[in-house]
UniProtKB/TrEMBL annotation:
GO terms for cellular component: high-affinity iron permease complex. GO terms for molecular function: ferrous iron transmembrane transporter activity. The keyword GTP-binding does not apply. The chain crosses the membrane at residues 6-30, 42-63, 75-95, 116-134, 154-176, 183-203, 251-270. The keyword Mitochondrion does not apply. It is a multi-pass membrane protein. It holds the Pfam family FTR1. This is Iron transporter. Belongs to the oxidase-dependent Fe transporter (OFeT) (TC 9.A.10.1) family. InterPro entries: FTR1/Fip1/EfeU (IPR004923). It comes from the Bacteria. Its main location: membrane.
Length: 277
């Protein structure tokens, strides 16, 4: 349970921080511009986004537990895992490139939304939160399937979101001084490793479904050394999906994704050329 809880806590914290950051910036801008009339539609958009994400989680769980079974279930879980990996990869690089400009971008969008009316403010908040919420639901669902647990990942996600909300309250008071680049780099690295594990699980699902070869080509088998039921075996499997045995293709997928994304994520940002006056 500990490993599955921690992995989902990290996901909830990361995505919750991004959503909390955006909401705190929007609330700050409304307060400073004396437009507190926009707070109600803003929170309405946030609540609607959370409800939609919760509905998505309920649908995925229902389909996985009550509708599908056998090969079709493996295929469904593999596809949702790939979608989750794609979304988290896009979000990681989006936040990396937008960390320094997100406040000014949101300022322009909020000013435009206020001019269009309350519905536009609610829509802006909804879009800002639903992106992180859907990503979080897909990641936690995939992590839960990989860990073969349901309760621990859900509790971990909720704990991560609560922690993110508390940090969001603190960021509200100091949003102008938050170093967003450093804030997301640490959690981003850990989340890349979690996503690599989910990519490995997707490959496993496709192999079980017979859509990928190599299901019998075992890269290693540590079951005699690392017991799957031990605490360290559980933590490794539930966080970054390092299981006691794996196929060659699973390991290739894990290493390829982790190395490639980490290199691209951690490389120095390109400096903009300064045009002479």
């Amino acid at each position: 349970m500990g490993g599955a809880f921690f992995a989902s806590y990290l996901i909830g914290l990361r995505d919750g921080l991004e959503a909390a950051l955006v909401v705190s910036i929007l609330v700050t801008l409304l307060a400073r511009s004396q437009r507190r009339d926009g707070l109600l539609p803003l929170w309405a958009g946030v609540v609607l986004a959370l409800l939609c994400a919760a509905a998505l989680g309920a649908i995925l769980t229902y389909v996985a537990t009550s509708v599908l079974s056998g090969v079709r279930l493996e295929l469904f879980e593999a596809i949702t895992s790939l979608v989750a990996v794609a979304m988290v990869t896009w979000m990681i690089f989006w936040m990396r490139s937008s960390a320094r400009t997100i406040k000014s971008e949101l300022t322009g969008k909020l000013t435009e939304a206020l001019g269009l009316g309350r519905f536009a403010v609610a829509a802006l908040a909804f879009v800002a939160v639903i992106r992180e919420s859907v990503e979080m639901v897909l990641l936690v669902f995939s992590a839960a399937q990989a860990a073969s647990e349901t309760v621990a990942p859900l509790l971990g996600m909720l704990a991560g979101v609560v922690s993110a909300v508390l940090l969001g309250v603190l960021m509200y008071a100091a949003v102008a001084r938050v170093n967003l680049g450093r804030l997301f780099t640490g959690t981003g690295v850990l989340l890349v490793l979690v996503a690599a594990g989910i990519a490995k699980y997707a490959v496993h699902g496709f192999q079980v479904a017979g859509l990928l070869p190599g299901s019998t080509a075992v890269a290693y088998d540590w079951s005699a050394t690392i017991a799957p039921t031990s605490w360290y075996g559980t933590v490794l499997a539930a966080t970054i999906n390092v299981t006691s045995s794996a196929t060659v293709l699973e390991i290739a997928a894990w290493l390829t994704y982790a190395i490639l994304i980490l290199v691209l994520f951690l490389r120095p940002a390109a400096k903009r050329a300064v045009t002479p006056a």
